[in-house]
Amino acid sequence: MASAALKDAQPKTIFLKDYRAPEFLIDKTELHFDLGERETVVTARLQLRRNPETNSENKALELHGTDMVLRRVAIDGKELLGSDFLLSPESLTIPAVPDQFVLECVTVIKPQENTSLEGLYKSRTMYCTQCEAEGFRKITYYLDRPDVMSEFTTTIVADKQDFPVLLSNGNLVEQGDDAEDGRHWAKWHDPFKKPAYLFALVAGDLEFIEDSYTTISSRKVTLRIYVESKDLDKCDHAMTSLKNAMRWDEEVYGREYDLDIFMIVAVDDFNMGAMENKGLNIFNTSCVLAKPETTTDQGFQRVEGVVAHEYFHNWSGNRVTCRDWFQLSLKEGFTVYRDAEFSADMGSRTVKRVEDVSLLRTMQFAEDGGPMAHPVRPDSYMEISNFYTLTVYEKGAEVVRMIANLLGEENFRKGSDLYFERHDGQAVTTDDFVKAMEDASGRDLAQFRRWYTQAGTPRLEASGHYDAERQEFALTIKQSCPPTPECEHKLPFHIPIAMGLLGDAGALPLYIKGQALDPETTDNTHRVLELTEVEQTFVFERVQEAPVPTLLRGFSAPVKLDYDYSRDDLMLIMRADSDGFSRWNASQELGVAVIEDAMAAYRNDKAVVVDERLIEAYRAVLSDESLDKAMVALMLTLPTEAYLSEIAEVVDVEAIHHGRRAVRLVIGRALASELSNVYLSYDHSCAYRATADAVAERSLCNVALGYLVCTGDERALDHCYQQYCSGNNMTDVMAALTALVHSDAPGAERLKREALADYYKRWQSEPLVVNQWLMVQATSPQPGTLDQVKALMEHEAFDIKNPNKVRSLIGGFCGQNAINFHAISGEGYGFLADQILALNALNPQIAARLLTPLTKWRKYDEQRQLLMKKALERIQAEPQLSKDVYEVVSKSLKV
Length: 895
Fold this sequence. Notes:
Blueprint: E1 2-3, E2 14-15, E3 24-35, E4 40-50, E5 61-64, E6 69-75, E7 78-79, E8 86-88, E9 91-94, E10 100-109, E11 119-123, E12 126-130, E13 150-159, E14 165-168, E15 171-178, E16 183-194, E17 201-204, E18 207-214, E19 220-227, H1 236-253, E20 261-267, E21 274-275, E22 280-284, H2 297-312, E23 320-322, H3 328-346, H4 349-368, E24 380-381, H5 390-407, H6 409-423, E25 426-428, H7 430-441, H8 450-453, E26 459-467, E27 472-480, E28 495-503, E29 506-508, E30 527-531, E31 535-540, E32 548-551, E33 560-562, H9 567-576, H10 580-603, H11 612-623, H12 629-635, H13 641-647, H14 653-670, H15 672-681, H16 692-710, H17 714-726, H18 730-742, H19 748-763, H20 767-778, H21 785-793, H22 803-816, H23 818-821, H24 827-842, H25 844-850, H26 852-855, H27 862-876, H28 883-893
Parallel strand pairs: 3-13, 19-20, 20-22, 23-25, 26-33
Antiparallel strand pairs: 1-6, 2-24, 3-4, 4-10, 5-9, 6-7, 6-10, 8-9, 11-12, 12-17, 13-16, 14-17, 15-16, 18-19, 21-22, 26-27, 27-31, 28-29, 28-30, 28-32
């Protein structure tokens, strides 16, 4: 009937303050998909009624829709003429509709041409969907907003030989064959009302592994993981993770699964990690497939965490969803907190915390300090896909963690129970979540709500004064927050600061002046201070020696802390603090100080001299048998170049790279004997186990190998090559391959060429394994890497339409190879601009996410600023720029 014209090139800004409840509701949605080779016909039958809560006099119905052909539209069975409605590039408007009616729309779409991977599209030979945030409007005309929740019934018709598996949300209620034309059909019904973003459909030639889980109320749930037949042997870990997550959610949150079947499908072409569609989770293959020969320990942990995350969404996201997209952290922040706690319970709590904080301080803090900075609950956006950010997810999780710590375990559980009970089946806001926590605990969290509404990373300036005569220690803490795009002046945050005091003999008891000791306190060496003013002083009494305070234990708040620790103070914390996070953090601060010495030496063309205290601290860590080996590995790992760049006022690319490398080299030589003992004590022939202890052993062994190889020692290079050749798991293989490929030792050149050729020959039929091959070459700090990346883009292993490959090769080079990407010639910036312009026409979401390195241009020296800005301006000049890319570029260039 009609096809929409080209979209308006000028994106509009959407504001939270303009939110209005929907004027219509959809009680029931019936969908019929006829999947064809050339086109797919979608018939939608919607039972609509006017929303009684809006009292609107507007008689018009406006539905969202784009990138499709409208073949037919009818109300209560009567087909409308072209003059009866208005069709725009992004909507269908019917000027006058009854208060209650049935709307039928027939649309035609072409999934095989949908490279944006939103809506219904084809991944290789499989049909699949991705409807969050606004992909459903590419399928049919609909009220595509999260506060319109409907009961869905979906019928799928397709060729049986090519698409023997037909899946959708809910429970399978009917299926059948049409023997005459070789097609078959399946009907699925989801009894739980949901918004359109949770709709899912999969059709393909898939096989599955099956298991079951008996819930706490003795209901048996069928569990299935669907994959291509070649991947059936990579699903066991995901299935185990799913069952562990189901059990954990019952035990910790009292949440039980509610359908008869839970399904996961692995898809190779996917913009995100996974999607929590009700009962039918669609996963990026990288987040579900795992076996020792093809997957690293990090990959195993990612599968476990993502499987749990998407399952936990069944309640924190599906049964209770977000009212509008400004509330995205309502489901994502809460669920990231839940999956982090799950992973901590499954492995090492301290190691998990360190990993999460490393990501937050390196990447999210940078986001807070950049042009895309926004509150956990944003005030505005142009394209919602750009707000699936570390701020919404990771910082959002930290906000929930602070609530949990302020309320205590018992009250936080009461609050979550009340939240789920009060809002089951509703679309709500972050305020509703906080209100449930207040009502359950009796705590006033009014000031705490600023964490949701104010952007930026608060900075704490702390200082201590010891009065020996009074035996008092006064701790003064000031808080501030720098301006961000939405607000220049910030009100004080409510900040929980977990802390302790250390003396020569260890932890000191804490007696705060003016505060009675809680009679139920079992550990009087640990307290949580609540900072609510711009400046506060806490006085500790009965302190018999000058103490060293350990602040932000467990990283109790997402803030930057300035305290004038001496290097001896940091060594004391590394040795004596009871909090594992604080010990690791002290090792990082000491590492930063020593690397800054090396950077200064590099700038002045002087030899690097490494402070012996760092070497002795590392030697002590290596000999400390009380430490988990995973913690030893973390504490021996120097601060990354990304973190050093984040904390710098102006990023000195060369000094950071060469300074850190020089320190690493000195440590490798100074501790060669101890590191060799660690490496040689590891049994490389033992069978792979994914247990926490085994992961820790591999981690420490490979950290030792990295230090030894960086010295260029021929024996170390030989050990490394032998580990690559004989490794019986991908963790050890990739650690060895990375050490070789990233080495600048003359003896490594031949070995790296042989290893890279052998690796591809061995694994060329495994896309996820090949992606690691692309990544290790893209992140090499050696000269000529950009030319190698360009050559790999022409390789048969690369496909620019596949997000995983783009992230591995282009994202790996631009986001994780600072010394080459930021080459003073500006070639790296030009290369990234070229790729963004190419991807802008194919997959705007991926194009916008790749832009991040260029958005940080203000952090660099004047010459690099000009070159990065020039690249951004070239992108902005593209006349057909997508909303996704336009928003990021325009905000990045805004003065």
